[in-house]
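Revision sheet: structure tokens.
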Amino acid sequence: MSTKTERNWQLIVAGILFIIFGLVCAFFPGLTLASIAFIVGAAFVVSGVVNIATFIRDHELLGFSGWILAYGILDVLIGAMFVIHPFAFAAVLPWVIGAFVLIFGIYEVVTTFMVKRAGLPLWGWMLFSGVISIVIGFMFFSMPEMLALFIALFALLRGVDLIVVGANAGKYFQ
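Predicted:
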């Protein structure tokens, strides 16, 4: 049994930032959809650029398929549309974010089984988090007027996720 107690401070700090973001969304729901659309658009662009750069840098080494490149390009295009026309895309924002949260939750549930097979004890927390993410994703579709609250719930959940994984990194990841 390892007595290693190292923590992954990057994950812990990212988790704290997610929690702060979630609290801002919860306590200031009056933020305009255009502002949120712009922020989401910028995040899509950054995510797409990172995916494209990762594909270009590591596709031969890691055997990435062209789907990662296509996903990166799609992220950049969606992000650009949100940034250029935030009011037009504010109307569909709850569904776009809901789809993302739903897909993320499904990904987390599927990943849980790989983590469990690897013998890591955090799989139970990951399964719980994934199921809650799926429920939150569906909530975006059923009550889009509650956008800020659902973003806050998801951000708080992701923040706790990152803190739990970061605080336990030394115990489970060598």
